[in-house]
Recover the amino acids of this structure.
């Protein structure tokens, strides 16, 4: 095990939420990492776990017994070789790791999902149904004069959002922090997170998040000048909504932000759809943009790679006839419940708490070295942006950030492991049957 | 390994060779002189009676980057009828209007194309473009960085920065986004849209900055000229798709004061306002201007009928076009004080007056421009049609009776307004070879591509001549990429990873004293994390080789 000597690096990207802040200062000392500047609760949690990984000194395990990396790779390859329908779940990794997972899934006819799909699809359904009008973080930083938080306080999930994107005085067009207004709609966890530096509180129009679709539709009607009857919509006074509609129409660059993991109820895509419809209505006369926020455990990266390589986002099976995409059938939980997989490969390198769901099939975990998990084969890997380099996509999807290796404590990357498994599988791809099935 | 291609009829316009029967020798991926008599030939292909051309080059095709992947993600219904299974050689994927990266590479190669250039790479999104192109096998790739609505350029121009400062910024951007050229899209217009402006004419002042599209065009064209970048400014002009924009386009040509520029998907910028429906062809005016101004080249952006998806950096225009989306969905984005994008699915119908006339306008443009060295064959994939329709387009250009048969089927009012039926020209194979090979290579500065001379890369396509040009160009007999046989009769036989082409114009490093504070103060990414290193390019590209081309074109500072 070798260590970089003690050193401090600047402008270090952090991969523990979708903001991918790249302005951290980090000191590495005998394999321990410490954030000197740019810390937030999520980064601190992630870096602490990375230090626990160092302390854990985890080795690969086969059925709980310590094994060499080579033995574990061979055991994982044996499981895949014996599987007819492997499931690649979790997929908490960066670009090279996700490419490696796709290579393996393609070679074995596997199904690819991501641990955050339950949340991602609340957006994807809307993207595929109507599309949307959206913006990105630097535009918000320089232009947003009115931010509507749609069922979220944002900062519980993306802690430095306000610091980096809203409470900024130095902007391109003279907009200052105190010129900006925040309105919270729905049931944010902690509305005080959006209090301005001068102490101005965000206005809260409270309702249950389940009612946000109705509220957004009422707002849209008010924006369009259509009547909304009744004194209140989902408990919010119609007069308050009318005032908000006027503010959105008057704003030069309104932003409606949501975090799908905070819209955690059945058919939450209808709430996202209604927010997007409201934004589109506003763009008939002024500028207003949606801002879908989220992005942990490499979920946006998995989506991007799977989409460009197959045409479809995750929940796609690389079957003999070509990629089959089904957001319901290829949900990890559904596949396991239906008995539709005969091996589970679970990848989770950011967070030791993201362990695989219970499964009665042979399970390989390519995981964070501090992870506590019982499975057939466990292969500890490095943490993206601390132990391994590679790229991650930011929450606004336009920016891919180059993550850095800050230390070398002897852990392989997900990409190293998937490449080794692929090599161990040998050339025996089911090519004959596939060629017969060749559709194009 | 020495390969001999024996007895083919060679069409190589870069060397004025038109149908001369001769042998071609390949060693280590390059075309070489005939060896000494008695030299061992490792592999010989008998090409008697067949036609030999260089591999084709698409200089404007949206194959990588955020907007392309949004198009893929939006359109699962388009992928499903065209799924591609994995084979021993090929990765699975999907085809049609927004094909997966692997399928894109295979299908280009199967058609005899050996290079494609992504024309609208936002600098801030450049990594993604390179990652996607890195997963696109066989063909060579490259990209044009997009500037012209980015807040730093507009700030510099507003503050009256010296042209040399702009040149340094342009060179820095091309270098660190790993680009092959520079594109401007609706100059100033993408920024104006963020200020809620819906149209920006050539001489209209952009909001806040007060600069005009004319000034932006001139400044960027000058920058590329001064920097010696081979491909001149790649221009997507103002008012895309708006009736009457032909005048804007003619004025934009004139705005260059003789500086070289390439006007892309010119069909979408050639609309007049004559007739009852206030929509008419401006192709004759455009062609006349191109014919008389040697500083200008164009590609057409031909539309072909059927389903497609339009993906553009021009979110101002795409927001307007979203009203016509089919299926009815669209993504409009403002992006990072850098640019924007708009993705709108579209179905061009031959029964629709406007679509039918657009089809005529594109073909008129091809047929009225005299010099094939300055008009290139594109559909602006996928905006006018997917690239897989190129063989059909070639047939339309080469076969007048086929063209007139098609003309008879389209909306009669549109057909009646077009002079297409009276145009007798039929492109020759030699001219097709110019507009798909030698011409694009020359304008891009790819000195060892697009021709079959000794020293050239052995990117070679072999056809069996067929009166049905669509059939002929769809499935060449053989396609060689850097000397490796990659496709045979329209099927992939080997997968290689093509090269990535870039330029790195010289600049004064002190420009970073301007650029770095812009990133730190206004952006949400640090300058150091924006720059893409050469190592990253190789990691992203399956070991693709990075080819850096000289910037010695034109006047160097």
């Amino acid at each position: 095990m070798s260590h970089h000597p003690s050193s401090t690096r600047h402008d270090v990207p952090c991969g523990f939420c979708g903001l991918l802040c790249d302005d951290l200062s980090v000191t590495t000392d005998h394999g321990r990492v410490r954030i000197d500047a740019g810390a937030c609760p999520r980064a601190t949690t992630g870096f602490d776990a990375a230090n626990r990984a160092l302390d854990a000194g985890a080795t690969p395990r086969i059925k709980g017994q310590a094994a060499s990396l080579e033995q574990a790779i061979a055991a994982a390859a044996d499981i895949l070789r014996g599987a007819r329908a492997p499931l690649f779940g979790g997929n908490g990794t960066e670009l090279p790791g996700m490419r490696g997972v796709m290579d393996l899934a393609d070679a074995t006819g596997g199904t690819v999902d991501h641990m955050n799909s339950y949340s991602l699809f609340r957006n994807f359904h809307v993207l595929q149904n109507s599309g949307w009008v959206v913006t990105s973080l630097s535009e918000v930083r320089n232009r947003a004069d009115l931010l509507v938080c749609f069922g979220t306080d944002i900062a519980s999930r993306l802690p430095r959002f306000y610091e980096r994107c809203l409470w900024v005085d130095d902007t391109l067009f003279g907009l200052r922090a105190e010129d900006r207004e925040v309105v919270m709609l729905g049931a944010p966890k902690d509305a005080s997170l959006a209090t301005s530096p001068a102490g101005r509180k965000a206005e809260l129009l409270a309702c249950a998040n389940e009612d946000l679709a109705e509220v957004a539709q009422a707002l849209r009607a008010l924006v369009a000048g259509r009547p909304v009857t009744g004194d209140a919509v989902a408990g919010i006074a119609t007069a308050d909504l009318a005032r908000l509609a006027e503010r959105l129409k008057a704003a030069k660059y309104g932003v409606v932000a949501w975090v799908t993991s905070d819209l955690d109820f059945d058919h939450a895509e209808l709430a996202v759809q209604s927010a997007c419809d409201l934004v589109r209505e506003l763009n008939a006369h002024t500028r207003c943009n949606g801002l879908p926020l989220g992005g942990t455990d490499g979920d946006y990266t998995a989506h991007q790679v799977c989409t460009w390589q197959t045409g479809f986002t995750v929940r796609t099976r690389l079957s003999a006839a070509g990629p089959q995409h089904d957001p319901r059938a290829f949900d990890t939980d559904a596949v396991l419940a239906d008995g539709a997989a005969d091996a589970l490969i679970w990848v989770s390198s950011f967070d030791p708490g993201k362990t695989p769901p219970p499964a009665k099939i042979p399970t390989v975990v390519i995981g964070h070295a501090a992870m506590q998990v019982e499975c057939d084969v466990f292969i500890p890997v490095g943490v993206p942006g601390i132990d391994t380099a590679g790229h991650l996509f930011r929450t606004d999807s336009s920016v891919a950030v180059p993550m850095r290796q800050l230390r070398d404590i002897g852990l392989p990357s997900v990409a190293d492991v998937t490449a080794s498994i692929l090599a161990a599988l040998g050339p025996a791809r089911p090519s004959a049957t596939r060629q017969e099935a060749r559709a194009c | 390994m020495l390969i001999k291609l024996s007895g083919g009829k060679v069409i190589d316009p870069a060397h004025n060779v038109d149908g001369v029967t001769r042998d071609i020798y390949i060693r280590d991926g390059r075309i070489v002189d005939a060896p000494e008599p008695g030299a061992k030939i490792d592999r010989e292909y008998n090409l008697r009676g067949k036609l030999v051309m260089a591999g084709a080059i698409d200089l404007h095709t949206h194959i990588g980057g955020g907007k392309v992947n949004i198009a893929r993600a939006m359109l699962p219904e388009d992928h499903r009828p065209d799924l591609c299974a994995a084979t021993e050689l090929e990765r699975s994927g999907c085809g049609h209007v927004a094909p997966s990266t692997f399928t894109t590479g295979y299908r280009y190669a199967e058609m005899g194309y050996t290079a494609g250039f992504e024309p609208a790479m936002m600098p801030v999104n450049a990594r993604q473009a390179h990652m996607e192109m890195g997963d696109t096998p066989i063909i060579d790739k490259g990209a044009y960085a997009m500037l012209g609505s980015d807040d730093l350029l507009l700030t510099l121009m507003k503050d009256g920065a010296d042209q040399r400062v702009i040149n340094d910024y342009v060179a820095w951007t091309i270098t660190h986004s790993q680009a092959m050229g520079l594109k401007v899209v609706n100059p100033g217009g993408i920024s104006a849209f963020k200020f809620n402006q819906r149209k920006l004419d050539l001489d209209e002042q952009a909001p806040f900055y007060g600069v005009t599209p004319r000034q932006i065009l001139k400044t960027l064209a000058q920058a590329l000229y001064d920097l010696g970048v081979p491909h001149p400014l790649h221009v997507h002009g103002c008012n895309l798709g708006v009736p009457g924009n032909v005048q804007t386009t003619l004025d934009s040509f004139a705005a260059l004061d003789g500086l070289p520029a390439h006007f892309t998907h010119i069909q979408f910028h050639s609309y007049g306002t004559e007739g009852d429906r206030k929509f008419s062809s401006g192709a004759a005016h455009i062609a006349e201007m191109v014919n008389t101004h040697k500083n200008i080249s164009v590609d057409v952006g031909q539309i072909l009928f059927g389903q497609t998806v339009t993906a553009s950096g021009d979110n101002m225009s795409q927001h307007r076009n979203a009203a016509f989306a089919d299926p009815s969905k669209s993504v409009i984005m403002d992006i990072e004080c850098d640019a924007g994008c708009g993705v709108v699915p579209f179905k061009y119908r031959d029964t629709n007056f406007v679509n039918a006339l657009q089809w005529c306008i594109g073909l008129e443009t091809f047929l009225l421009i005299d010099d094939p060295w300055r008009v290139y064959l594109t559909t602006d994939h996928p905006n006018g049609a997917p690239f897989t329709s190129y063989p059909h387009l070639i047939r339309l250009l080469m076969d007048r009776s086929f063209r007139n048969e098609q003309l008879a089927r389209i909306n009669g009012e549109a057909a009646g307004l077009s002079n297409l039926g009276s145009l007798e020209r039929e492109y020759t194979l030699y001219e097709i070879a110019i507009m798909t090979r030698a011409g694009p290579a020359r304008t891009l500065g790819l000195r060892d591509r697009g021709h079959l001379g000794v020293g050239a890369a052995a990117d070679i396509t072999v056809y069996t001549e067929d009166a049905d040009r669509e059939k002929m160009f769809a499935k060449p007999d053989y396609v060689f990429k850097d000397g490796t046989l990659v496709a045979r009769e329209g099927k992939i036989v080997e997968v290689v990873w093509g090269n990535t082409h870039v330029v790195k114009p010289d600049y004064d490093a002190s420009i970073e004293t301007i650029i770095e504070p812009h990133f730190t103060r206004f952006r949400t990414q640090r300058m150091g994390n924006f720059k893409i290193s050469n190592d990253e390019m190789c990691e992203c590209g399956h070991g693709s080789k990075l080819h850096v081309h000289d910037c010695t074109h034109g006047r160097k500072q």
User: Anything to note?
Assistant: Chain B touches chain A through 68 residues (CB under 8 Å). The CA atoms of residues 372 and 435 of chain B lie 6 Å apart.
